[in-house]
Amino acid sequence: MLKLVIVSLALIQLSSAxxxxxxxxxxxxxxxxxxxxxxxxxxxxSDAFWxxxxxxxxxxxxxxxxxxxxxxxxxxxxxxxxxADWDNHGRFYARKSLKSISTLGANTVRIQWRIGVTGNxxxxxxxxxxxxxxxxxxxVIVQLHDAxxxxxxxxxxxLAQWFADNIYVFQRYHRFLMINIANEWSPFGxxxxxxxxAYKTAISIIRNKGWKGILIIDAPAYAQDPTAxxxxxxxxxxHDKSAHANGNIVFSIHAYADWKAYGGRYNLDDHVNKLYNTxxxxxxxxxxxxxxxxxxxxxVDIDYxxxxxxxxxxxxxxxxxxxxxxxxxxxxxxxxxxxxxxxQETEYTWLKSSTNDLTEWGKRLFTTPNVGIQATSVKGTFxx
Length: 384
Hints:
Elements: H1 2-15, E1 24-26, E2 40-46, E3 49-54, E4 60-61, E5 66-67, E6 77-81, H2 83-86, H3 93-103, E7 108-113, H4 123-135, E8 139-144, H5 153-165, H6 167-171, E9 177-180, H7 192-207, E10 215-218, H8 220-223, H9 227-244, E11 249-255, H10 268-278, E12 281-287, E13 290-293, E14 298-301, H11 304-314, E15 317-320, E16 328-329, E17 332-333, H12 347-350, H13 360-367, H14 373-376
Parallel strand pairs: 6-7, 6-15, 7-8, 8-9, 9-10, 10-11, 11-12, 12-15
Antiparallel strand pairs: 1-3, 2-3, 4-5, 13-14, 16-17
C-alpha cells in the first residue's frame, strides 16, 4: 500500500510539472505540461509552439523610441484596420486583408475593436485577427473605438477595465502587441488636466492586472491636440514609473483637419519639434492626405510628405488611415480615405495586394519615394 501511495504521488507530481522560462507550454498537437513558472506566462510564438516567457518580454519605451523584446529599435510603419466593423456578420474581410497589408510592406497594424460590437463577434475573433497579423510578421496595436469623441472620463475607465478584465488574452501575445486604450476619447476643447487625470486612472487599472508592455494614449480633442502631451505627457510617464515601476507609455496624434497644410491650428514643424523636445515617445497613430474640416465639411489637404519626412528624420512611427471600410462623416463619404480601391462591400477588394490596386492615397502612403512605407518600413526580427 505504501508503494502504491508513493507511486501515485510521483505520478501527480510528474503530471503537474512547472514549465520553465523559454520551454514549450502549448501549441498544435502539444500534450505536455502547460503551467509556467512564476513570473512567466504561456505565450504565442507560433501555431505549433507556445512557450513560457517573462511578463516584461515585449515592447518597451527607450529614449524617444520604441524597443522590441530584444532591445532593438522598432519604427512603426503601418495601417489602421477596421476589424470590429468589417469582421462581423461572418465576413472577416479585415482579418483576411492583413496578409495584403503585410505584402505591401507594413510592419504594424492597428486593429479597431469595440466592446459593444455587433454581428456576433467574440473575443476569439479578436485573437484570430491578432494571430493572423503575427503570422504575417506585423506588430499589433489593439484599440477600442467605443468612446470616440466622448466627453465622459468614466468611458476611459470603462475601456481600461475591459482590457484589465481580458488581460490574460493580451498576455498571450505580449511579445508582439501594444494596447491603445481608447481611440480619440474626448471632444474638441477638452482640457489637458481632464485628459491627464482620466488616463492616470486608466494606466493604473491596466497595470494593476500585470500588463508590463506599452500602453498607447491618444491625445485629446479626437487625438488632434498635441499641447496636452507637451504640457502633461511627462507627468503621465512619471506616474507610471513611480506607481508601477514601468514607464512604457507612448502617445498618439491623429493628423487631420486641425493639422491642415495651410492655416491649420497645429503647424507640423512647430509641434513635431515641441513634442520631440519633451523627451516622451509618440507616434502619428492616424493620418491621411486630406480630410473634411468641421463645420464647413470642405476637404482640406494634409501635408503628408512633410509629415512622413519629419517621421523619417526624427524616427517617429506612423500609421495611415485606413485600409478600407470608411463610412460617412460631415455629410460626406469618407471612401477617399480608403487605401485600396474598389467596392468595399466585396471581399475581393479587401484582398487586393498590388500597388496598382491602391487608391491615390494608398499609393502616396506606401510608395512615396524615400519616406513612404515601402521605403522606410523594416519588419521586426522578433517573429518566428
